Structures are given as structure tokens and as C-alpha cells.
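Quick log. Single chain, no ligands specified.
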Amino acid sequence: MKGKTFKKAALYIALGACMASMAPLAMAQSVTGAVAGRAEAGQQITVTNTATGLIRTVSVGADGSYRLSQLPIGDYRLQVTRDGQSVGEPVMVNVSLGGTTTVNLGGDGSVVNLNAIQVVGSRVVNRVDVRSTESATNVSREEIARLPVDQSLASVATLAPGVIGGNSSFGGISFGGSSVAENSVFINGLNVTDFYRRQSFSSAPFAFFQEFQVKTGGYSVEFGRSTGGVINAVTRSGSNEFQGGVQLTFEPEAWRSTADDHQFPDLNNGTAYYRASRDRQTFTKTNVWASGPVVEDKLFLFAMFEQRDNKTGNTNNLGTTWSSGESDNGFWGTKLDWNITDNHLLELLAFSDEGDSQTSVYGYDFDTATRGALTGRSMSESGGRNGSITYTGHFGQNFTVKAMYGENKSKSLTRSSADELCSLVTINSSYSSIYEAMGRPTVSCHPGGSVVDHHDKREVGRLDFEWALGDHLLRFGWDHELMTTDRSTRYPGPAAMSYTVYGVTNPDTVLDNGATVPAGVSAYVMGRRRIDGGVFDTTANAWYVEDNWSITPNLLLNLGLRVDNFNNKTAAGTSFIKIDDLVSPRLGFSWDMKGDGSTKLFGNLGRYYLPVTNNINFTFAGGLIDERTFYVLDGWRQEVNPVTGGSYTAPNLGAQIGPVDDQYNVSVGDLRQSVDRDIDAVYQDEAILGFQSAISQAWSWGVNATYRRMKNALDDIRINHTPCGPTSTLWPIGNPGKSLTIWGTTEMGCATDGWITIDTSRDGYRKGGSGEVVGYFEPRRTYKAVEFQIDRAWDGKWAFNASYLWSKSEGNHEGPVNSDTNYGDTGMVQHWDHPANNERYGYLFNDRRHQIKLRGSYTLNEQWSFGSTLTVQSGGPITAFGVTWPNDTLGAASFVTEGSGGGSGWICVQNCAGSYEQRVYEYSPRGAFGRMPWTYNLGANVTWTLPVDGIDLKARFSVYNLLNEQEVINVRGRYEANPGVYRPTFATGTRWQSPRYAQLVVTWNF
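-> predicted structure:
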């Protein structure tokens, strides 16, 4: 009795803590599963949730089929009855996220399809879901607890075949050859995907979740706005049993291996440094949770609080500064379930992932490992408060309604007391030899980073219906999202400019503004001013209808149609980009080949659309200042840090070299010139064919083939020629390689003002010097893959899963980001800044030809258990990017910075310093310089359980990257600095695998 009282007290303490800090209530869609199968006509099938007592009953149809849908995930007791009398013994059934557990029953109420299922303990678990036409991987929190998987949604997703880490410079994950900006993430049905750039999502502690589903293809029309993949996660819920727990996680610095340092020769005898061996991190967190009934069988609560303490210390790449970071943040979250009746349910979710951190920056001498004076401090804030509420109503046995509303908030704020006083100054590797001779002094009084004030808010509402009509299960619904961005960014300092110091690469160095560095000048400074700001809305609406038609008891046909509408608006609320009636047909089938649920052949065809991110209307409807100004470096001077009082060395800006380079400015003038009048959305077509079979109750295997094709892109396009003749550079958002309709004016050379159409496959770009008019190459991206998988399900003793994926990703553009040059401004990358940027079709950045993934767990006895994961994948292609192409004086890439301007597939090999018409080029295909090395990532863990009845105490020790592999995973792709001037850093690394580290997790559940 005392134990129950203690648990109940813990529950109410947690409830009070969460409710005290909750945001205003919001609402969200629930995530469920189903039980279906065959039985004798006229029988009744009743399922009872063993945790909450929820009861659902359905009658078996005249054709012998039954289905209980929209069931909260968990364990159920299934009982067959006839005329109010029980038939046979109850059967325990597990309902998984987004899946259908098939249980075929005989006249005596017993399970007859034993070859197709597995019995774990007393629960029936599906081996093959013959009622699904999609490609998905389900992982429960119990399975994750047995494996060395890092505690993040992205780490869970990469367990699935075909899912890999994206460009490590800006993070994210890639599904099936897509870029990192094409995925969607849902928590309890609430879309928590970042809509500004689509490269991140709101987060929650690992312990907050119950089950994960990773959809890699063929997903239902209920899901849209994604051309990559979907992570669908559901949180834990309360039950009729009072429970609680404490979990402590330790990742001390002493358990982390040292990262390798790297250095490579660069221009002007300079050196490109990547110093990381002194980097340090210590992380601890304490998680407390409680759950139980507020009202037995009716109202249930799950509540959690997690305190995180993260301390970091690291040098910059040059080793001239030391940054000490500290964050001490708490997460809170709660889930409330109200079974108003067995047929009417209400769910409430609320959580906050708000956090802040402080970074102190000091001078640093890498050679002596000595920390110098404080340069300054910066503060950052992230995350937000999120919530959802969902009503589910079952009206009769065949009709279900869901209604939900939700809010997803996030912010990104970065500020420092030096923002108004100090400018950013960095040293390019081409100047490093001179800088080292100076003693590598501190060159700025600012701790680093732009001044950012960014707030995003998504409001979601949706209605979903499900109606069973004989052989047809009809699903239809509507959803609406209002996404608001309030953002401003600038560089710090009085002039809002950042400065980079460069060494002169050769006597005829040409800058991006077309000017040549004056004779006798050995170094110059590039000042960049980038300012934006405004508040902008985007709305996304969709309706869908889907028919799951059981043509025969063994053949299921899925017929779906989704129609999306996107409306990106200006700050005044008028439409900037409006794309309506985007029709997504989807067709799938699943054939239960043996009729017992053990073997299926499945396939699907579908179209998927990608929305326009908010950074597009923010930049083009709000305006962007992005200018470069070049100066002679006129020596250095000593200055006093106005914040700390210390001293630092600042560059003297000498004579300006050439005009201000303002070609990347986006002015808000006539918006009819900013966007194609007839613009089309980005879409991808996909085809999947697969086979899956249960070998036994424990073992199953499968194989499938996937083909994806993206033939459309939406991005800013450089236009300096129209049918009216040459014009100053415009940057309209359009579909490159297709027709572009914008407003023409007499100032552009048109006879009258009016709409003009440019066939951008033939027109739009006029070469400098030669005056030749050309167009842009048609965008194309294809992905082909064959996947093999074998699985041994957990039976209380051991489990194993192995997959091999062969894939090929080809085309001339990666998608809405450009990993080749580490440029992640979604939908505004350099693919279409110059025709040379997209001329080459070939292997793309996310092309990993071979992927092998293994995971397994084993219990030795009640005290000791073990787990391991292994991921092996071949390296991505190494592609060379030049800066010009034949018969053109305009750069296809920046002559100064490596990340700006994309690059060309043409390398100048002769007469490169002469006039453009004398240059001789060699063509370099994508992947011409081989591939990065294979990577191996082995993880292992051991779990000790206290062998005392009634006490659930565990300690899990995990090691990640056990072999301490530190292979390169990203390289520099710029081959040239100026035409014919080779960059020695080409194909050298910029990112490597994270070193080995260990983690101890101690869990006490009561």
C-alpha cells in the first residue's frame, strides 16, 4: 500500500510540475494501429487494452472478415464471442504504430495463422503486415533499450535501410537519395518539421517516446509535403497502473577519444588547419517520469521532466581561439488521455524543448595549449513550446472521425554584448603563412556568429474520417497549416559587415566584382554585408481520399488521391507564390500469397510534392542585402576590446578594390519580376516493388526495389537576357529548364510593359564577352535501389536484423540544398546561378552505392544482456568544380570563396591567364576523382540488471564508434581559385567521423 501511495504522489508531483509551466493548450492528431483478420461470420471480436481497459467490439462480416482500426498502440486482449458467450480462450495481441496485426481465428476462437505470427511471451506479434503497401521500419523503445543507439530521432531513423546522414556541415538525414531538406517529422501526428529551411525539427527526450515508424517510401496520401521520408513517432501514455522512474545518463569527457588534427597545403604556401584534438565535452542528464490513472479506466497521465547539463570546450580550426560553452536546460512534457467512453477519446500532448546556452571565447595558443584573454560572450536560445489535442469518435462499428488542432513553435536567437561594437574578422588559409609569422594573434573583439532573431510558429488543424463499407475501407480528410516566420539577421559591428583576410593567389587575381588585385598588393580583405528581416506567412492546405479495397480476401488494392495547395505570402499578406491543385495519385497493392498472412508481394506508384519553404518569401518578398566589398589590407593595428578591456589586433582597410559587388542583392520592387507567374511545385514520382515472407515464427526476410525520379526544381535563377534583349541581372524564383513568365518593362528593352515568357532551356543567360545566349539544363535526379533484409524477432532471448542496400543516385542537382559546396539555404542554392552549375549529369552527393546495417541483442541471463550495431557504407563521389567555362567572362563560381557560386565542370588547362576566347578547357565529369573511403561504425553495449524481484534497476554501458574510425566524410570540391590556378586543398577533408565515446545510463523504474 505504501508503494502505491508513493507512486501516486510521484505522479501528481510530475503533473503539477508540467502543468505549472505549460503553454496555452493546443491540439494534435493521434497515431494508432489496427487489428484485422478472418473469423466465422456472425461472431463478435472484442479487444480490451490491458493498460487502460479501453474496449472495442466489431462483428465479423458475411465474408468472414473483421477489422478494428484507430486503436492506440499497445497490448490488447482479444476475445471471440457468439450470442454473448465467449468462444475459446482470450488471445493477447500487440498493436504497433501505423500497422495492422493480422489474427485469423477458427470457429473455436483459436488462432489459425500461427505460421504468420510470433508469440512473444503471451502476445501475438506480426511478422508480415499483409495490409500495408508502404516501405516502413518500426522500432519500439524496448528494442532501442537493448541497442547502442544514440538518443535522437535521427539515430533511430538511420537504422532503416536507405537512410543515411546528410552533409555533416549542416546536418540532417537523407532518405532514398533525397537531400536533407525533403523530410517530414511527426510527434503524435503533430508536424514538427522546420518549415523555414526544412532541415531540422522540434525534439524531445528519447525516453518520452514509445514507438517510432520510419517511412522510407510508398506512404499513404494522409502524409504529404515530403519527397524524402517520414519519421512518425508516438509518445508514452499513462495506464491504470501507477508507475514512475528515474534515468541518469553520463557521458564524461574521460570516456571520449581524441579527435585527429588535420592540415593541408593551400594557396600562397598557406595551410588549411582542422584542429580538433583539444576539443572537450561532458554531458549529463537526469530524467524523471511518472504515469498512472487520474480516474481509473477513464483518465490517464504521463508526465516527464528532464534536466540536461552540457559543457563543451573547443578550438577553432586555426587553433587561435578557445570557446567554452555551457547549457543547463530542462525539458518538460505531458500526455493526457481521456476515455470519455469506449467510443469517444480525447488526447492532449504538451511539451517544451526550449533551451539556451552561453559561449565564452578566449584567445588561444595551440602550440603551448595556453588560453588567453576573454574575447567576449554570446548567448543563444532555441526550441519552443508545442502542443496538440485530438478527438477520436467511433460512430457505430464502421465510421470513425478524428478532429485535431496543434501548435508547433521554435526560435533561434543569438546575441552578444559586442554586437553593436565589434565586427567579425576571420583568416583565410591563403593568408595563414603570414598570419603564423605574426604569432596568430586574436583579430576580432567579437565572440563569433551573426546576430539572429528568429521565431517560427505553425498552427495545424485537420479532420480525418474512416468508413468501412463491405470490401472497402474509405479514408478521407482535410488538413490546414499556417506557418509564420518572424526573422531578422545581420552581421555584428558598426557597419554590419564581416571581414575575411586573404592572401593574393597570383599577380592577376580576379575578384568576384570583376576587378583585378592591384600590382604589388599581397593581401586583401573582403567585407560582406548581409541583412534581412520581416514577418511572413505561408498556408498549406490539402484534402485526400483513399480506398483500401479488398478485391479478394488475399488481395488488397490501395487507391489514393491527395490535392495540395501552397500559398507563400508577402509581409502585407498578399500572395507571393501560390500553387494550387497539386494532384498526387497513389496506387498500391498487397497480395497475401498464401492466404495466411505469412507471405506478401506488394508494390506502389505515387507522386509526392514538396512545399516552398518560408525562407523563399522571406528573402524575395522581404528583400535581401548581400554585398561584397574588397579592400587592400593596409597592415594591422592594436585595439582595446571595448567589452573585456583586453587587447587584440585589427586589420586596417586600405583602398577599395573595384566596385561593391551587389549582384546577389534581392530588392523588393515589382514582385511580378520576382516569381514565375506560372510556377510549378517540386515533385517526385516513385515506384516500389517488394516481397516479404515469414520463414518461421521468429525469422522473416524481404527484398524490394525502388525507383525515384525528380524532374522539376524550384529555385532562384540568374536571368540577364530575355526575349527583349540583354538586361541587368534578375533573380526570379522559377522552374529552371522550363518556361518562365515574368513582367517585362521598357527599361529591360521590351517594346511595352507586359508579361514575357522565357524558355529557360534556350534563353535566360547571356555569356560575358562572347554575348552568346544559352539556357539552363533540365533538372533531373534519379534514385535506384535494391534492398535485402532478414530479421529475427525478439523472443525474450535474442534478436537480429541485417540489411544490404545497393543504390545509385544520379542527376545534375541534389535537390533544394547543395551539399557539394556546403550551401544549405533551401531553394536558393547555386544550382541555377549559372548554366555551368547544372550542366553535368552524374553521381550526386548522397550516392552511397553500398550500405550494410546490422543490429542484434542477446540476453545471457536475468542479470546480463548485450547489444550491438554495425553500419558500413561506401563513400560518396569526389567531384571537381572549376570557376569558369568556355567562352564566358562571368564566373560560374566565386574567385574568392569556395562555398559561393557553385562551380563548373570545366577546368582551364592552357592560356588561362589570357583572354576568355584563348582559354583551353578539359571537361571533368561528376565523380571523376573517385570516392571518399568506406566508413565503418560499430557500437556495442552491455546491460546489468539487479537480480532482485520487485526492483527494476538497470545500468547500460554503451560505446559508440567502438573502433574509433575517423574516416573523412566530406571533402572540399573547389578545384580552382582563378582559371587555371589549382587549389591544393581540392579533395581534402572538411569533416570526419566523430571519435569514439561512451555512455552510462542508469535506470530505476518503480
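The first helix runs from residue 2 to 20.
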